[in-house]
Structure prediction request, 71 residues.
Amino acid sequence: VHDFGQTELQTTDQRDATIATTASRQKQLIRAEQLAALGLAASTISDRVRRGRLHRVRRGVYALHPPPGGG
Prediction:
Protein backbone atom coordinates (compact mmCIF):
# COMPACT_ATOMS: atom_id res chain seq x y z
CA VAL A 1 0.00 0.00 0.00
CA HIS A 2 1.38 3.39 -1.01
CA ASP A 3 0.83 6.55 0.96
CA PHE A 4 0.51 8.96 -1.93
CA GLY A 5 -0.31 11.86 0.38
CA GLN A 6 3.03 11.46 2.17
CA THR A 7 4.90 11.20 -1.14
CA GLU A 8 3.25 14.37 -2.39
CA LEU A 9 4.06 16.14 0.87
CA GLN A 10 7.74 15.24 0.50
CA THR A 11 7.67 16.48 -3.08
CA THR A 12 6.04 19.72 -1.96
CA ASP A 13 8.59 20.16 0.82
CA GLN A 14 11.45 19.55 -1.61
CA ARG A 15 9.92 21.95 -4.13
CA ASP A 16 9.48 24.62 -1.45
CA ALA A 17 13.11 24.18 -0.42
CA THR A 18 14.21 24.63 -4.03
CA ILE A 19 12.03 27.74 -4.37
CA ALA A 20 13.57 29.18 -1.21
CA THR A 21 17.11 28.39 -2.38
CA THR A 22 16.50 29.93 -5.81
CA ALA A 23 14.90 33.05 -4.35
CA SER A 24 17.71 33.46 -1.81
CA ARG A 25 20.11 33.91 -4.71
CA GLN A 26 17.84 36.52 -6.30
CA LYS A 27 17.08 39.01 -3.51
CA GLN A 28 14.23 36.76 -2.29
CA LEU A 29 12.48 37.05 -5.66
CA ILE A 30 11.41 34.34 -8.08
CA ARG A 31 9.88 34.53 -11.56
CA ALA A 32 6.71 32.76 -12.60
CA GLU A 33 8.71 30.91 -15.27
CA GLN A 34 10.99 29.51 -12.58
CA LEU A 35 8.00 28.42 -10.49
CA ALA A 36 6.46 26.75 -13.54
CA ALA A 37 9.74 24.95 -14.28
CA LEU A 38 9.55 23.56 -10.74
CA GLY A 39 6.08 22.20 -11.47
CA LEU A 40 3.80 24.91 -10.11
CA ALA A 41 0.74 25.57 -12.24
CA ALA A 42 -0.51 29.13 -12.65
CA SER A 43 -3.47 28.24 -10.41
CA THR A 44 -1.08 27.03 -7.69
CA ILE A 45 0.89 30.26 -7.88
CA SER A 46 -2.35 32.25 -7.58
CA ASP A 47 -3.40 30.13 -4.62
CA ARG A 48 -0.06 30.75 -2.89
CA VAL A 49 -0.53 34.49 -3.43
CA ARG A 50 -4.05 34.34 -1.93
CA ARG A 51 -2.73 32.42 1.08
CA GLY A 52 0.21 34.79 1.60
CA ARG A 53 2.92 32.28 0.71
CA LEU A 54 3.99 34.37 -2.30
CA HIS A 55 3.73 38.12 -2.75
CA ARG A 56 3.32 39.66 -6.18
CA VAL A 57 5.98 42.29 -6.87
CA ARG A 58 5.05 42.86 -10.50
CA ARG A 59 3.63 40.74 -13.28
CA GLY A 60 5.46 37.42 -13.26
CA VAL A 61 7.69 38.26 -10.29
CA TYR A 62 7.03 37.12 -6.74
CA ALA A 63 8.66 37.61 -3.35
CA LEU A 64 8.75 34.99 -0.64
CA HIS A 65 8.15 37.63 2.04
CA PRO A 66 5.92 40.70 2.08
CA PRO A 67 7.63 44.02 1.45
CA PRO A 68 8.71 45.95 4.56
CA GLY A 69 5.81 47.95 5.93
CA GLY A 70 3.32 46.40 3.53
CA GLY A 71 1.58 43.26 2.58
